[in-house]
Amino acid sequence: MKKILQAEAIAPFIISVLLIHTMDVNFAWWIWILIFLLPDLSMFGYAFGNRVGAISYNVLHHQTFAAILAIFGFILQLPYVELAGLVLIGHSSLDRLMGYGLKLEAGFQFTHLGTIGHKRKLSN
Q1: Which of 42, 55, 67, 72 is 20 to 30 Å from 102 by CA-CA measure?
Q2: Hey, is 72 helix, strand or coil?
Q3: For the CA atoms of 56, 62, 64, 66, what is the dihedral angle to 10 degrees?
Q4: Any stretches that span the bilayer, and where are they (predicted)?
């Protein structure tokens, strides 16, 4: 089931990239990389504990929030707000495709897609 949830994330990723490509906003190619990585700054919330970290991470990786932001920007003709929503959709979709899901309060490695990272063996 986890693989199916991961695989379905490819569609919103591709759609967001195509929509971004059609927008009338121009940046150097390296700026796009920085913009695409910005949502991961939300991980700094973990410096204040698992609960704050999960909340801050999930807000910037929740696809409903991202879609509302993109639609809001489109309707009000605010291209940078629309861009922010589309970037969040693309970023969170790529994360899900790689197996990183929304975080649970138990810790960063615990997600709605399961536990991420390598399983450690206990040594005697």
Answers
A1: 72
A2: helix
A3: 80
A4: 12-38, 65-89
Instruction: Give 58-108 pLDDT, tens digit per residue.
Output: 999 999 999 999 999 999 999 999 999 999 999 999 999 988 889 999 988
Name all contacts of 105-110 with Cβ < 8 Å and 24+ positions apart.
105/50, 105/51, 105/54, 106/50, 107/50, 108/43, 108/46, 108/50, 108/53, 108/57
- DSSP label at 41? G
Neighbours of 20 (CB within 10 A): 19
Local structure of 50: helix, strand or coil:
helix
Q: Is the dihedral of CA 47, 89, 68, 35 positive or negative?
A: positive
Other beta carbons within 10 angstroms of residue 101's beta carbon come to 21
The encoded tokens of residue 19 equal 């929509």
Instruction: Answer yes or no: are the C-beta atoms of 91 and 97 closer than 8 Å.
Output: no
pLDDT given for residue 87 in this prediction: 94
CA dist., res. 34 & res. 122, Å (int): 39
Token pair of 112 as six digits = 């709605």
